[in-house]
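The protein record filed here:
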Amino acid sequence: MSHIRPVDVCLIVRDLFGCIQECGIVPHPPVELPKCLVPAVAQRVTGDKYRIELSPRSWESRHLYGMLLRYDTHAKIIYSQSMNTCWRRFVVCKELAHLLIDTDAEHFTQNPVSLVQELINDVPVMRTDHDINSERLAMIAAIEMLLPWCLRGRLTEMAEEGLSDLQIAQEFRVPEKIVNLMLRSDYGSFSKESNSFSTNTSSKS
């Protein structure tokens, strides 16, 4: 994987939603995966002919929650149906993220709850130029996909109206822990700072 910073991940996802809006699609909660996000990522990867297949499986998620298999003409995201809808959406987005930010052919999600908890624990030391590994970068991208910058005003509005994190999570159809992360930790400030950068201030090598 080429060197990429957390701020670059936020900008990549922000620009992805910019392309979605340019196509005449207006994102709204909950962000639609099959009709909105999946085609946009496929288009971003190699163009119109690339396809991404979502494949639910009945295996127990105790050991494996999801995996990405990447091929020249398509990719397959396999995920466990034993998770609830919100965590399934997070796992799918996390595997989609790998298509955007790195080149490894395979990725696996084993325990999304503990992965998010690790990110929560590490946020206080995170900076926009912080160098972290592929899995955590993919988590950041997944969070930015499910709670995108273009809908952040709606999320803030709901919080200011006194809705609980659970109520917000239900509207966005995301795990409550991710809403906690955005509203109750330093991640929210980090995301705001990152998304406020102009594209030409980011650098990827």
Notes: The beta strands are 51-57, 66-70, 74-80, 106-109.
